[in-house]
Every structure is written in structure tokens, then in C-alpha cells.
Amino acid sequence: MIRKDKTNFFLILPAILFLTAFLILPLIILLLMAFRSSGNSIVIDDTLTINNFISIFKNQSFYSGILNTLKLSAIVSIVCIVLAYFPALTLVKTKGNTKTLLYVVLLSPMLTSVVIRVYSWIVILSSNGIINQSLMKLHLIKSPLSLMWNSTSLVIAFVQVLLPYAIIFISNSLTKIDNNLFRASNSLGASALYTFFHVILPLTIPGILSSFTLIFSLTAGSYITPMLIAGHQKQVMALTIYQQAMQIMNLPMAAALSVVLLLVVILTIVITNYLGRLWEVRVYGK
Amino acid sequence: MARIIFENVDYGYKDTNILNNINLEVANGELFSLVGPSGAGKSTLLNLLAGFLYPKKGRILIDNQNITELPPYKRNVGLVFQSYALFPNMNVFNNVAYGLKIKKVNRSEIKERVIKALSMVNLEQYIKRMPRELSGGQQQRVAIARALVIRPQVLLLDEPLSGLDAKLRQKMRSVIRELQQRVGITTILVTHDQSEALSISDQIAVLGEGKIQQVGTPEAIYNRPVNAYVAEFIGSTNLLNTVSTTNEIKVSLTDINEKTIKFLTRPSKNFKGLKFMIRPENIRLVEHAEPETLQGILTKIEYLGNAEKGWIQLKTDELVFYRSINHDKKRLQTGSVINFSIDPELIVSINQNGSGRF
């Protein structure tokens, strides 16, 4: 047993070293930076202070920023999960080459760079974009609709990238369901819709929660998409952090904001995991 | 409670048929078993009845109502699966109540009927348990209660006992039979276990090669198989070689000492293509060689607890026999020389036009 533990340790050692160097150390640096004073000068002094956090919580715009972030992340997650069910059910039912093809199609949005993907949305959604131009040529509208620079377009752009994650998690949950459950439900008089809400949905809760955790944190942490699609119309936390760090060059404030965002995201994940654990204990035991 | 009729049912893909021209009639209140090797189409037949598959041709009737095109949720059929298929996210009560909730039965009646169904399978004290907290046998009983509580016209059991260990299987077998008799529900049992089918069925249909080989009572299936397929599938059997001349068919065996005994002679014009068999339990071992006995070498012996199953090598044929064991009998040794006799009365002829003993 001890021997085996030792081997296991050596096997995970590279991963531990990698994570220490590229995740844990930067996090410590970030944490330290958050407690430095953020004067007007570019020089950061060495004394530790909690002034950054005090000014964050005193500032009204911080609350609207965090609320925007939470709302956006939650909406994107929920939209992804709802939209994922149909593709996931299809994916589970197909076999062989068709399945492989579907996987390729599914993963293709992830193969494109964020910037290119976002610019393509601009091409489609902007006032001179494909949609507005077509509608105007068809004389359906007189002046261009404002499709860009609002939260709907932001949600669309996020959903496009993050939907595959939800599909994969949910189809994974679906494959674990015994096919006979559907038949049993059906033979007991349940329609497809009733079966979906009473059997399929409850049994894919683990998939829903994993999708939610991942999509929520990816959305909350992304700044390029909000910057390019919504501009400054919608101030989200990640964008504020970017502006503090790259435009105002206030690194301590950016670090402090990052720590707050990190805590908020961790809290969400902890709550979701706790709910998932409750469900698991109920259905599968310890 | 219902009578089930399959009328000229074909099922299959484009050109290949899995089931050919199935005609079956299951009488009201009967326990009807479908047996056959895996891939024989037993479950396909069950799925056709449950509505998960639709036939290419033919009709299926329950109580004279044509249900061939009806979707599963509109048929009044109770299903029990090998994998139990209990909803893991619901406790025992909600599992059993599932069908009643869909039918919008009022709450107090649901409670009453669920408790009644569970007490029928002796599980009323487990009402709050989750499926995972129950043993396999208990889960299967919940599944039966769930199927029966909606008062289906027919109960379909798809290999319900295959997932259980041997001892529990024996027990559940009688539980199912007893329950079926008490409720009086027409039941179709799919099984590959012939002893299960023989022990609890009113009627058995043997399926093989995409069609029904024989339908009959367990006794008829075992003692009067209509063809070699049934004879070999149900129980062990010894098909005996025949020698045909222009006028007669002879059934005879030649032993290791070149001694030949002729058991039967039949005029060949009436019995063309006839096969003969003898069940292993009808081969009688004797101590000493006598004029009517044959001699062979015991090549293999299997100990079955209360019996022995052995293989005797003759000149060319090999025969299987069963012999019950009691403590004053000597155990047999492989390689030893065995004397045995066969009563010609117990040789069964197999033909399509009704077989029987001579």
C-alpha cells in the first residue's frame, strides 16, 4: 500500500510542480499585490494595507459591476444548459461516424481564437452588419437596429463558445441513464415531456451543475468578449480589472478586484458543489 | 385481464426478418412463457406488444382491440425489466405512485393503492427507502408492484430473474407465480431459462430462428416436442440415429462390443424424415450385462448434488444420462464400463404432425 502511495506521488509530482510554478505562486503574488497601497504614482510601496478593499466596497459602481457579472454569468450558464439538451439527446442517440462528425461540429467553435470569433459577431450584428443590411435591403426596417453594445449580443457571443461544454457534460450525464427507465416511464403512461421533466431532468442534475460551474466561472473571468461586444455599456468585473491593470496601471487595485471576483466565483462553485453532493447522496448514497 | 392475439406478425428491417409470421394466442389469466436462445426474438416480440417496436405486417390484439399502431403510453401494459429500471431519483413510494400520478388519480387513492400494491409484494415497510437501499430481489418486487398498481391489462416480464443469484431466482419464481395467480393477470414471461419456464408457466412458446417452433403446456413441450429444435432446446436429449430402408425405418444402437439392439421398426412411408429421441432420465443403468442391455464407456461425469449426469460412449454414438443419487448407490467413475438398457416405450418420435410415444 505504502509503495503504491509513493508511486502515485511521483506520478502526480510533475503536475504539482507545474501548478505551483504557474498557479499557486502567481496567486500568492496577486494576493500580496492586493494589499499594497495604490497611490497615484506608478511606484508601488511595500507597506501592507486594506485600503484597496475599503475603497472597493465604498464605491457604488463596484456593486453594479459585480451584479452585472453575476447576472451575465448566470444567464449565460442557464441559456447554455437549456439549449444543450436537444443536441445532447441527439448526440447520445447517434452512433459511429455520425457521432464523430457531430463531435467535430460541436468542438469547432473552440478551435477559433476569441478575438476572431468576437469580430465575426461584430460583422454580423453591427449597424453595417449582415443582419441590419439585409433587413434594410428588404425594406423591413428603415434605420439599423442596435444589435450590438447590449447584453443580449453579449449573451449570444458567450453562448456560442460555451455551449459545447454544456452539451458534453449533459450528454455525459445522459449516457449514464439506463435506457429501460425511459421505457418504464413510457409504459406507465408518461408522454415524452413528462418523462423529460420527471426522469431525464432530475437524473442529469450532476451534468447541469458541472456545466453551470464551468460556464459561470469562464464567463465571469472573460474580459475580451465584453470589451469588444458591449464596450463600456455593460461594466463587468473582469473588464474593470483589465482597465485598472492595463489602462490606469493601478496594479494593486486590479489585484484587489481580482481577489474579490475570485472569492465570489469560488463561493458560487462551493454552493453548486454542495447542492450536487446533496443530490448524489440522495440518489447514490455516500 | 385480457386475451392477447398476434396475427401473422412480421418484424424486421428492409429485407431481413427477425420474426416471421408469428401467430400466438394467450388466454385470459394465463402465465405464458416465451423461451428461446438469445437472439431468437423473444424480447422483440415483447417490445412489439409493449409498443416500443411496430410490426412490418400483421396485427396485435388485446381483448379484441387492435393495438398494433398504439404508442406505448396509450397501451395498458405493465412492464418489468431485468435491470429493474426503478427511477433512482425517487423513493419506493414515488416509484410505485409514478403511473398513478400520470393518470391524475387523487392523492388519497394513490396512497391507498400504492400501499396495497407494496403489501402484495411484502414491501410495505420499505415505502421511504431509495432504490439503491434495496437488494436486487426487493427492487424487482418494487418493479412488479409499480407495474401492477396501474391495473394493466397485461403484465410483461422481460427476463425478470436473470439479474438475481440462483437461490433468489428460485424464490422469486414462486413469488411471481403466486402473485400472478392471485391477481389473475394475463402475463407474458420472457426467459432463456427453460427450467423457469417449465416450472411456472401455463403455456410455453419456444422461439427459434425467427419463428415459433412450438406452443404448448410445459408437459407437452418437454414430452412431445414437435421438432428437433425444441427437443434439443428444452432439457437435455439424445437424438437417436435411424437406418432407413425402402420399407422401414429402424432405430438401433450398437455398443462397444459390436452388439446391436433394434428398438423400433416403423414403416417408412408414414414416418419419412422422422427423428427419435430419448430423454437422459430414461436411460436405465444396470449392474450386470444382460441380453437386453448394452455396454459403453463412461467418458465424463458431472456431479449435480442430488443426481449425476454422465456421457456414455458407444461404438459411434454418445448418450447422455441422468441418475439420481442416494447414499447406498456407488458413485460412478469415468473410464468405467457401464451396462444400461432403454425401454423402447420411452423413445419419443418427433415430427411436425404431433409427436408421441409409441
From TrEMBL, chain A:
<dbReference type="InterPro" id="IPR000515">
    <property type="entry name" value="MetI-like"/>
</dbReference>
<feature type="transmembrane region" description="Helical">
    <location>
        <begin position="181"/>
        <end position="201"/>
    </location>
</feature>
<keyword id="KW-1133">Transmembrane helix</keyword>
<dbReference type="Pfam" id="PF00528">
    <property type="entry name" value="BPD_transp_1"/>
</dbReference>
<comment type="similarity">
    <text>Belongs to the binding-protein-dependent transport system permease family. CysTW subfamily.</text>
</comment>
<feature type="transmembrane region" description="Helical">
    <location>
        <begin position="72"/>
        <end position="92"/>
    </location>
</feature>
<keyword id="KW-1003">Cell membrane</keyword>
<feature type="transmembrane region" description="Helical">
    <location>
        <begin position="9"/>
        <end position="35"/>
    </location>
</feature>
<protein>
    <submittedName>
        <fullName>ABC transporter permease</fullName>
    </submittedName>
</protein>
<feature type="transmembrane region" description="Helical">
    <location>
        <begin position="251"/>
        <end position="276"/>
    </location>
</feature>
<feature type="transmembrane region" description="Helical">
    <location>
        <begin position="147"/>
        <end position="169"/>
    </location>
</feature>
<keyword id="KW-0472">Membrane</keyword>
<feature type="transmembrane region" description="Helical">
    <location>
        <begin position="101"/>
        <end position="127"/>
    </location>
</feature>
<feature type="transmembrane region" description="Helical">
    <location>
        <begin position="207"/>
        <end position="230"/>
    </location>
</feature>
<dbReference type="InterPro" id="IPR035906">
    <property type="entry name" value="MetI-like_sf"/>
</dbReference>
<feature type="domain" description="ABC transmembrane type-1">
    <location>
        <begin position="66"/>
        <end position="272"/>
    </location>
</feature>
<keyword id="KW-0813">Transport</keyword>
<keyword id="KW-0812">Transmembrane</keyword>
Automatic annotation (TrEMBL), chain B:
<dbReference type="Pfam" id="PF08402">
    <property type="entry name" value="TOBE_2"/>
</dbReference>
<dbReference type="InterPro" id="IPR003439">
    <property type="entry name" value="ABC_transporter-like_ATP-bd"/>
</dbReference>
<protein>
    <submittedName>
        <fullName>ABC transporter ATP-binding protein</fullName>
    </submittedName>
</protein>
<dbReference type="InterPro" id="IPR003593">
    <property type="entry name" value="AAA+_ATPase"/>
</dbReference>
<dbReference type="InterPro" id="IPR017871">
    <property type="entry name" value="ABC_transporter-like_CS"/>
</dbReference>
<dbReference type="InterPro" id="IPR027417">
    <property type="entry name" value="P-loop_NTPase"/>
</dbReference>
<dbReference type="InterPro" id="IPR050093">
    <property type="entry name" value="ABC_SmlMolc_Importer"/>
</dbReference>
<feature type="domain" description="ABC transporter">
    <location>
        <begin position="4"/>
        <end position="234"/>
    </location>
</feature>
<dbReference type="InterPro" id="IPR013611">
    <property type="entry name" value="Transp-assoc_OB_typ2"/>
</dbReference>
<dbReference type="InterPro" id="IPR008995">
    <property type="entry name" value="Mo/tungstate-bd_C_term_dom"/>
</dbReference>
<keyword id="KW-0067">ATP-binding</keyword>
<keyword id="KW-1278">Translocase</keyword>
<keyword id="KW-0547">Nucleotide-binding</keyword>
<dbReference type="Pfam" id="PF00005">
    <property type="entry name" value="ABC_tran"/>
</dbReference>
<dbReference type="GO" id="GO:0005524">
    <property type="term" value="F:ATP binding"/>
</dbReference>
<keyword id="KW-0813">Transport</keyword>
